[in-house]
C-alpha cells in the first residue's frame, strides 16, 4: 500500500474518533438542539466520505477490509451535503452504531498494514 491511501485512511480514523468524542455522553435531544454539534457531525461525515472515496480510488482492494464501503462514501452526500434528508434520528443512529464499527475496521486495517510493512522491512 502506498502512503497516499494510508493517509486517507488515517484521516477517516481521526474523523471517526472526533465524531465519537463529539457524541459521547450526549442524547438525541442534545443533537437536535445543538447547531454546533450538528455542524461538527456534518463536517466529519464529509471528511469520512471524501477521504474513504479517495482511498478506495487509489487502492480499490482496501474495500475488502470494510463493511459496505460504498454506503460509507455515500454518507458524505446524505449527512454531509444534505442531498437526502435522513433525519436527526437516523443520523444519530449512524453516530452510535456505524461510526464506531467503521473506526474499528479502519484501525484494524491500518494495524495489519503496519505489521505487514514492519515484517517486510526485516
What would you note in describing this structure?
By secondary structure, this protein is mainly α. It has one domain. 80% of the residues lie in helices and 0% in strands. The chain is built from 5 helices and no strands.
Give the tags.
elongated; mainly alpha; 80% helix; single chain; 5 helices; 122 residues
The major pleated sheet works out as:
none
The poorly predicted ranges are none
Question: How many structural domains does the protein architecture include?
Answer: 1
Q: Into which percent range does the helicity of residues fall?
A: over 70%
Q: In percent, how much strand structure appears in the residues?
A: under 5%
Order of helices and strands: HHHHH
Tell me the Rg in angstroms.
15 Å
Shape: elongated
Count of individual beta strands: 0
User: Count the helices. How many?
Assistant: 5
User: What is the CA-CA span between the terminal residues?
Assistant: 17 Å
> What structural class do you assign from the helix and strand content?
mainly alpha
The residue-averaged pLDDT reads 82
Say what oligomer this is.
Answer: single chain
Amino acid at each position: 500500500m502506498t502512503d497516499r491511501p494510508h493517509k486517507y485512511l488515517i484521516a477517516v480514523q481521526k474523523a471517526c474518533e472526533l465524531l465519537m468524542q463529539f457524541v459521547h455522553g450526549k442524547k438525541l435531544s442534545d443533537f437536535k438542539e445543538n447547531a454546533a454539534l450538528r455542524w461538527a457531525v456534518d463536517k466529519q461525515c464529509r471528511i469520512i466520505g471524501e477521504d474513504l472515496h479517495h482511498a478506495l480510488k487509489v487502492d480499490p482492494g482496501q474495500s475488502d477490509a470494510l463493511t459496505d464501503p460504498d454506503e460509507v462514501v455515500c454518507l458524505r452526500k446524505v449527512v454531509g451535503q444534505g442531498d437526502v434528508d435522513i433525519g436527526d434520528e437516523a443520523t444519530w443512529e449512524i453516530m452510535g452504531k456505524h461510526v464506531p464499527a467503521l473506526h474499528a475496521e479502519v484501525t484494524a486495517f491500518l494495524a495489519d498494514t503496519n505489521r505487514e510493512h514492519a515484517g517486510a522491512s526485516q
